[in-house]
Write a structure and sequence with these properties.
The complex is a heterodimer of chains A (115) and B (110).
Chain A: E1 6-8, E2 11-12, E3 18-23, E4 33-39, E5 46-52, E6 57-59, E7 67-72, E8 77-82, E9 91-99, E10 102-105, E11 109-113
Parallel strand pairs in A: 2-11
Antiparallel strand pairs in A: 1-3, 3-8, 4-5, 4-9, 5-6, 7-8, 9-10, 9-11
Chain B: E1 4-5, E2 9-12, E3 17-24, E4 36-40, E5 47-51, E6 55-56, E7 64-69, E8 72-78, E9 86-93, E10 99-101, E11 105-109
The chains are: A mainly beta (115), B mainly beta (110).
């Protein structure tokens, strides 16, 4: 069973860059899509984007200009960067392993954007 | 803008059957969209129930089933229990290679 601990800064000021990292324990790093999903307080889920082990990415068009997902295969880790954050980016951010809709979820990190 | 639609709220009696649906404003949902379903209780990460239309995730009771009904994906709960009271989300895979979540259904068991 895969385990996905994640970490990163939980409080940001507007215009700063959100940075989160997720480690992968258990199972192969290749052959899966490594994904970030977010959920604003009291709202629904939003797919941010994905990367595979070789670094091929897809992003949500609404966030594409600000998002970078990268992989560090040698460390079995992948990361999310979201630039120029605003209060609208306040959310719980989940890292996940995604296999055709079968999702193994990380525990989530609350990121709050506030001046 | 692709919009994935779900009922905002539904209710079911204990022991009853309820069907949640997942649709598209601009097309019919088919298995090609790999519809998948997740359950979330307050303060918890979501849990995968069904993926690729009708494959039950490990450990999910067989009272949860997925299908295509008409032009939508469907999640049916048969013999609802009190702890099925949760938020349920579907997700669809789009031609562009991205995934889009529905807005979620709040299910009440009463």
């Amino acid at each position: 069973q895969v385990h996905l601990p994640q970490w990163g800064a939980g409080l940001l000021k507007p215009s700063e860059t959100l940075s989160l990292t997720c480690a992968v324990y258990g199972g192969s790093f290749s052959g899966h899509y490594w994904t970030w999903i977010r959920q604003p307080p009291g709202k629904g889920l939003e797919w941010i984007g994905e990367i595979n082990h070789s670094g091929s990415t897809k992003y949500n068009p609404s966030l594409k200009s600000r998002v970078t997902i990268s992989v560090h295969a040698s460390k079995n880790q992948f990361s999310l960067k979201l630039t120029s954050v605003t209060a609208a980016d306040t959310a719980v951010y989940y890292c996940a392993r995604w296999d055709s809709g079968s999702i193994s979820w990380g525990q989530g990190t609350l990121v709050t954007v506030s001046s | 803008q692709t919009v994935v639609t779900q009922e905002p709220s539904l209710s079911v009696s204990p022991g009853g059957t309820v069907t949640l649906t997942c649709g598209l404003t601009s097309a019919s949902v088919s298995t090609s969209y790999y519809p998948s379903w997740y359950q979330q209780t307050p303060g918890q990460a979501p849990r995968t129930l069904i993926y690729s239309t009708n494959t039950r995730s490990s450990g999910v009771p067989d009272r949860f089933s997925g299908s295509i009904l008409g032009n939508k994906a469907a999640l049916t709960i048969t013999g609802a229990q009190a702890d099925d009271e949760s938020d349920y989300y579907c997700v669809l895979y789009m031609d562009s290679g991205i995934w889009v979540f529905g807005g979620g259904t709040k299910l009440t068991v009463l």
